[in-house]
Design a protein that fits this description.
The chain is mostly beta strands and 337 residues long. The protein has helices at residues 9-13, 202-214; strands spanning 15-21, 29-34, 40-45, 49-54, 59-65, 74-76, 82-86, 96-100, 105-110, 117-122, 128-133, 137-142, 148-153, 162-165, 171-175, 180-185, 195-198, 223-228, 234-239, 244-248, 254-258, 271-273, 279-283, 289-293, 313-316, 323-326, 330-335. The protein contains two helices and 27 strands. Strands 1-27-26-25 form a four-stranded antiparallel sheet. Strand 12 and strand 13 form a beta hairpin. The longest helix is centred in the middle third of the chain and has 13 residues, at 202-214. It is found in: Nucleus.
């Protein structure tokens, strides 16, 4: 694998496929994540297959099958051999599983959610993680205990919920399906949100109106995922209107809208900031990946072509000049310079 390079427009424009990891014709990939060291990548498939990839050699070194549950959301923990993941199969078991790759054993089950989990994120430094669910709740968990250490009721069951930590883990944002992003102090979240960012703010509404009209979108605008920029200055919202909204993370003011990537059905697709926060990679429903300048909002170069269908998830490696994406297979992208 290539040594880390500075993130410039020229470098980002040169990204091309560096590795292809074949999938299975009867199952689709659902998730991808990198360990914080940048040395290990893990992927999940709808049939319950979890693969681990060495990012230095570019080779897969572990494959395990959890067919009983299927895997929907997958995250590395602080230990490179341990994962947390949620099930995909439609069942009454919506526990989060703490899984050891080393000996393929479940270390712990985290029970409490009564419907599908919609967000799963590890705390950047502590042994904690957060979840949201279609049961209408947000929860924080200590990885050493099977019961959640805190819960927020976020409205009616069935609403779209998502959440994310900032890069220090001191703040998290929660979208509660009512058109508002709420910001919480992670240490005192039971005190309630310290800020609320409504999507029906006049500035946002006016800016979105011509784009939504052009796309003939007349439904309720919902947020499907949240991402804080690495410098914690911005909050990126992926929406069911097939566009990205970037807000000021302190005041909730609209900074820019990214709408050049095709997403006709407004489905949840992969989106990730580059490690320095200068660029945004966003999956599209036609299998391409669009690169945006995070500051100007302009698309960088032409879309990357490689997948045959919508890019369900993508992540930038936190330590290496490497982008991973998934659909039917897993692709690694690197600069070709």
């Amino acid at each position: 694998m290539a040594a880390p390079l500075s993130f410039t427009e020229a470098v980002v424009r040169s990204y091309s496929i560096a590795r292809v990891f074949p999938g299975d014709e009867d199952a689709l990939m659902t998730a991808i994540d990198f360990h914080r060291s940048g040395n290990v990548c893990v992927t999940a498939r709808s049939d319950g297959t979890i693969n681990a990839i060495n990012c230095i050699s570019g080779t897969s070194f572990k494959s395990i099958l959890t067919k009983k549950y299927g895997v929907e959301l997958l995250r590395t923990t602080h230990h490179p051999d341990c994962l947390i993941w949620s099930s995909q199969n439609d069942s009454n078991d919506h526990s989060i599983r703490y899984h050891s790759l080393f000996d393929n054993k479940f270390l712990r089950f985290f029970s409490g959610h009564t419907a599908k989990v919609t967000s799963l994120m590890m705390h950047p430094t502590a042994d904690e993680f957060l979840t949201t669910s279609l049961d209408g709740t947000f929860r924080i968990w200590d990885i050493r205990s099977p019961e959640s250490r805190g819960e927020l009721k976020c409205g009616e069951a069935g609403r779209t919920l998502c959440a994310a930590y900032d890069t220090d883990g001191l703040v998290f944002g929660v979208y509660t399906g009512d058109g508002i992003v709420r910001m919480y102090d992670a240490r005192n979240f039971t005190d309630g949100p310290f800020a609320k960012f409504p999507l029906n703010d006049e500035t946002i509404t006016v800016a979105l109106r011509p784009i939504l009209q052009q796309r003939k979108f007349s439904g309720k605008l919902d947020v499907l995922s949240l991402n804080f920029s690495p410098d914690q200055q911005h909050l990126l919202l992926s929406t069911n209107a097939g566009l990205l909204i970037q807000l000021d993370a302190f005041e909730g003011k609209l900074k820019r809208i990214f709408a050049s990537h095709p997403n006709a059905n407004g489905t949840k697709l992969g989106v990730s900031y580059s490690p320095d926060g200068k660029f945004i990679a966003c999956g599209a429903d036609d299998g391409s990946i669009c690169m945006y300048d995070a500051n100007s909002g302009a698309m960088v170069g032409t879309p990357l072509k490689g997948h045959v269908g919508q890019v369900f998830d993508l992540q930038w490696n936190p330590q290496r000049h490497l982008l991973g994406s998934v659909h039917a297979n897993t692709l690694f992208w690197q600069p070709n310079m």
